[in-house]
Design goal:
39% of the residues lie in helices and 17% in strands. The protein has helices at 68-86, 106-119, 139-148, 162-168, 174-187, 205-218, 235-241, 250-266, 285-291, 326-336, 348-359, 368-374, 380-384, 389-395, 410-413, 416-440; strands at 39-46, 90-98, 127-132, 152-158, 192-198, 222-227, 270-273, 276-278, 296-299, 304-307, 318-322, 340-345, 399-402, 405-408. It has a 9-stranded mixed sheet, with helices on both faces. A 3-stranded antiparallel sheet has the order 10-11-12, with no helix packed on it. Helix 11 (348-359) packs antiparallel against helix 16 (416-440). The longest helix has 25 residues, at 416-440. The protein is globular and about 60 Å long.
Length: 458
């Protein structure tokens, strides 16, 4: 059992790697994904940027010239191919991420959406989100994207302080960020989200409090709040490692996160996911599809996907990653219809690990029904209700297991990354113990559970 948890703790803004892949837990038989409705979310990765930010380690590229027509054709073809492969009959949401997809033309966005609607049903009003950089957008550009079919914008504000923006390597000013958000809200009222970073080198508690006040005067009804991660290989991480910039202490990071939670909730926002806040029901339905472990299809260089290749006779969910480098990806799409670089069938244990890791990021957690889809033989109560790590976490006030399912408390949500190792270990231990026996003596349907139907990707 891990030590008692409390401040300071690393804030769980990014789920960690899943330990213990494979193993005897594979003996557990999951519910068949082919029995579930063939629906999926779709992520489209636009990998190009005008410049690389100092903290960025995403799959992005700065190129002197771009043949957008060729990229558009490849995005369209790969979307069509993967939708046919999955035999998805309905696409629940579309998200254009990057990179800087607002550098693409509205025509490219429209072409992809037309291809999606031609290969599967795209319901009227389905959430279609575009990530936008304040320096690459304007009111006319936003209007063009809206005409192309976009109905939600995610604006990468990151900070409203010019000095912080320069340190982050952003190519926009605070004034440009404000102007972009105001223009977006005019065209997408109630459906404009902003991204904000905290925990920057040298950032103080008082400065952070001032940023929050400014954000509340500017924002719409959705905020994505991320702790800055100093990724290896980035310019900012090198500056901190070399002593040119200070490394933020963990207790300060925890205080900043807790301050933001309190301020935003007091302003009417629901803290519905570790890094996301919404009011007036403005939750991101696309991102919820990841956290609820629904199927999703990744299109574009480096995009990730989780879906069943039904057209190949598949009955189990696969993890797919598209080729990272755009030129190579385009060549593969042109020759074979898609640029999938790796694919692997997810074992029952791996699927439950992902469901646990992602589902607990939300304030609703994992319902009995959703767990039952992935584990019809072994209920939430059977895995986490017995004496062990999960029971201890409940007694300490970090976790709740009741008729609604398994979820973190308000305090537990803030330290999720420190809770997950214990929970994953208990899951693996129970599946190793129960897998073979349960296979011989199935108890599907126990406790009346029904079988019903995740990174920022890219």
């Amino acid at each position: 059992m891990a030590a008692a948890r409390g401040w300071p703790r690393k804030v769980a803004v990014v789920a960690g790697a899943l330990p213990g892949r494979g193993g005897p837990g594979r003996a557990l038989r999951p519910a068949s994904d082919t029995a579930a409705p063939a629906t999926a979310a779709l992520y489209v990765h636009w990998p190009y940027c005008r410049k690389r930010c100092s903290y960025c380690n995403f799959n992005t590229y700065v190129v002197p010239a771009l043949d957008e027509a060729a990229v558009r054709a490849c995005l369209v073809r790969e979307a069509q191919t993967l939708l046919r492969l999955s035999q998805v009959h309905s696409v629940t949401s579309v998200f254009f991420g990057g990179g800087t997809p607002s550098l693409a033309s509205p025509g490219t966005v429209a072409a992809v959406l037309e291809a999606v609607a031609g290969a599967a049903h795209l319901p009227a009003g389905a959430e279609v989100t575009l990530e936008a950089n304040p320096s690459s957008t304007s009111a006319p550009a936003f209007a063009g994207f809206r005409a192309a079919g976009v109905n939600r914008l995610s604006v990468g504000v990151q900070s409203l302080d010019d000095a912080e923006l320069r340190m982050l390597g952003r190519d926009h000013t605070a004034a440009e960020a404000r102007k972009a958000v105001e223009a977006a809200r005019g065209l997408f009222p109630g459906r404009t989200s902003i991204d904000l970073l905290f925990g920057l080198p040298g950032q103080s508690r008082d400065a952070w409090a001032q940023r929050l006040e400014a954000i509340l005067r500017l924002c719409d009804d959705h905020i994505s709040l991320y702790q800055l991660t100093l990724e290896r290989g980035t310019a900012l991480a090198a500056q901190v490692r070399g002593g040119a910039l200070p490394r933020p202490p963990q207790d300060l990071l925890a205080d900043m996160y807790q301050t933001a939670r309190n301020v935003l909730v007091a302003a009417g926002f629901r803290h519905y996911e570790v890094s996301n806040f919404a009011r007036k029901g403005a939750l991101s339905t696309h991102n919820l599809s990841y956290w609820q472990a629904d199927q999703y299809i990744g299109v574009g260089p480096g995009a990730h996907g989780r879906f069943v290749p039904r057209a190949e006779g598949g009955c189990s969910r696969e993890a797919r990653v598209q080729t990272l480098e755009p030129v190579t990806w385009m060549r593969e799409v042109q020759s074979q219809g898609h640029g999938t670089r790796s694919r692997a069938v997810l074992s029952p244990l791996e699927q439950l690990e992902e469901l646990l890791t992602l589902g607990l990021r939300t304030d609703e957690g994992i319902t009995h029904e959703r767990w039952g889809h992935f584990s019809p033989q072994l209920s939430l109560q059977a895995v986490f209700g017995e004496p062990g790590e999960a029971r201890a976490l409940q007694q300490e006030g970090w976790l709740v297991l009741d008729g609604g399912g398994l979820r973190c408390t308000w305090a537990g949500l803030a330290v999720l990354d420190s809770l997950l190792p214990d929970l994953l270990w208990q899951l693996q231990r129970v599946l190793v113990r129960e897998g073979p026996r349960r296979k011989k003596e199935p108890v599907a349907g126990a406790q009346g559970l029904s079988a019903a139907t995740m990174d920022n990707n890219g």
